[in-house]
Amino acid sequence: MKRIGIFVFILLACCCAAMAEQPEWTYPLPPEILANNEGYITLANKEVLLDADYAPQDLEKLAVRNVVDDPVRKAVNDALVTMFADAEENGYKLYVKSAYRSYQTQHTMYFNRLEKNNGKDDGWVSYPGASDHQTGLGIDVLNYAWTKKEGMNEKFALEDEAKWMAENCWDYGFVIRYMEDKEEITQINYEPWHLRYVGPEVAKYMQEMHYCLEEFTQEWQAYIEEYEANGGDFNQLLKERAAIEATVIGYSEDGEEEVSLSHNFY
Prior knowledge:
Oligomer: single chain
Strand content: 5-15%
CATH topology of the domain at 39-215: Muramoyl-pentapeptide Carboxypeptidase, domain 2
Radius of gyration: 22 Å
């Protein structure tokens, strides 16, 4: 019979004892996601600006139908491949019209728009640093006919492809970044073509709660503040959970067979 070394139990006992001192984590999503180490829930808007030199490190060429040379982050590419294939199986052919944009590109677009509109910000082009596209996680997805239009507007929502995306994008980790009834919060016009990758768990939760990214961000940040006000230490919680979730290697009595123990939980 395999026997795991005593050090395994000591490690687990120490970790569990330390976690017992933390308040109970009751938020619907695990703390690892809210730590945002991958940047998937990064918010960019007029109040939360990205640095001018910010650029994702894992940008790569689009692997799906597109009419641009813009790159995207790897997780977005992987999700798009699956989503585009499923859309096509259901009779919908999707195209990416815009993906990652640098701060400099957004700066040019924004001030060109202002000049065109006599200095008025009409809510169609984000302020430099406020663009979801700069995260490398925001993409504009359209049908072929709309890729040929010079200007985009909310009427795209009437297209079958837009309806399919609105109903199904959440399953692939995307949300509609600028929703029709959230314009007052996002300060951006309704854009049924603009998808934002946040990961499957977050997308599902945001869909259930009907949250835009601003609302979700406000909620989870407030939860962490409350957690720490009640005596918790968020960073320490992450370390403790990582220690317990790590695979620990032990040996059988004869020293030949390895035994692994992995404790995973939310």
